[in-house]
Amino acid sequence: MSKTTDIRLQEVNCNFEAVPFRAPLKFGGRVVDGAFLINVDVVVETRNGRQTDGMGSMPLGNVWAWPTGSLEPEQTEAAMKKFAEEICVVAGSYTEFGHPLDIMYNISGEYHHLGKALSQRLGLDEAIPELAQLVSASPLDAAVHDAYGRAHNLNSYNTLSKEFVSHDLSEYLDEQFAGEYLDQYTLRQPKERLPLYHLVGALDPLTDADIGTRINDGLPETLGEWITADGLTHLKIKLSGDQIDWDVDRVFAIDRVASETQSARGVDKWFYSCDFNEKCENVAYVLEFLERIRKENPAAYDRIQYIEQPTSRDLEANPDNKMHEAAKLKPVVIDESLVDYDSLLLSRELGYSGVALKACKGQTESLLLAAAAQKFDMFLCVQDLTCPGYSFLHSASLAANIPTVTAIEGNGRQYCPGPNKKWASRFPSMFNITDGTVGTGALKGVGLGF
User: Fold this and answer.
1) What is the DSSP string of 206-250?
2) pTM of whole model > 0.90?
3) What is the rounded CA–CA span in Å between residue 441 and residue 189?
4) How far apart are the C-alpha atoms of 262 and 135, rounded to whole Å?
5) Above 90 in pLDDT, residue 30?
6) What is the pLDDT of residues 316-371, one digit of tens each?
7) Domain spanning 194-442 has what CATH number?
8) What is the DSSP letter of 321?
9) Which residues have C-beta within 8 Å of that of residue 312, sequence separation ≥ 6?
10) Could you tell me if 193 and 439 are in contact, meaning their C-beta atoms sit under 8 angstroms apart?
11) Domain ranges of the chain
12) How far apart are CA 79 and CA 132, in angstroms?
């Protein structure tokens, strides 16, 4: 099957951009103080010979995507860089015409073999895990979708219907989706505004007393200062997952600062999400955590919107980590484990009631999983990978075009704001935050929207 609107790849280029952090970020027991952006540019050709370019960008994120006790971060970083380069070579040799969904679906069939072969060539004792493969390939995926929209002078989210796509969703998911296309699960215009989830990392200062030496770069430094400056109403709390007293006390400390600051602003409604980064041993930890919050501070408990993946990302190896009881209290969203449709189905069997979409797992995969999550009536949110600049705009455009997503995480402005500068003048509503929201209505241009 083919369409007159199909494209094929003509040129694929990959480069890396170092991004220093202004402050360290701690999550899941790990600390990050810098990152690399993977930047990919593509040139595509339409069937009538017209050429158009497209771009994708994403932080490499090896500490999150590839946690390991046997390799150093420098090794996983180098391997993911090499994977990004080599999958771009693979894409450059892919000569078939198609829609971005089909082009990337077919190219993704090479991920597993490349991840295994590359690790062997580099002398590593671990194959590159699926999540790290998706992150490394995600800028390529984004660039192809971006170029396709530009080739047809359309927003990429408006090129997902039967008019453009050769196969219905059963080709990528299963027969439950026969006759359906992604236009049924996406919006024709992005939401005008979305609340911004601000990250409170495990090392982030809550008050002046928590600061040893101020950075003094003109940005807020304490939680209270951030809430006041940006008008925040949504806070994502990083927790340890293996120190119950610390986790409970951390929520209470954040709630005290938030309550005092919001009261001074005249705000009486705000929200939290709690992220354990898979460090909890079992669901009993989550239940105890929630029960202690509920008993000791009912208002803070009511402010918790959802829980992010609390236990191990290896679902198959830990079938006893069922979330049914916790999901009766709050939505429990799958994150690190979510690498494909099969993992989504397994997470539902284990009691997960929500899905955390991430642009860093690929535009194609994210769109397909967003459709599945909506069909199964699951809670949906969009998280980021400390995405600055172009990558944050991409993440926000994904959130703004999925109907049931109601907020967007964006913490690049906190930890690595440098790449934001060249985009802030073009999209001030996305980077100049004053009322706790981002103006995603600006992301309605051709390609990915910006």
Assistant:
1) SSGGG-SS---SSS--SHHHHHHHHT--EEEEE--SS-HHHHHHH
2) yes
3) 8
4) 36
5) no
6) 999 999 999 999 999 999 999 999 999 999 999 999 999 999 999 999 999 999 99
7) 3.20.20.120
8) -
9) 278, 318, 321
10) yes
11) 7-155, 194-442
12) 9
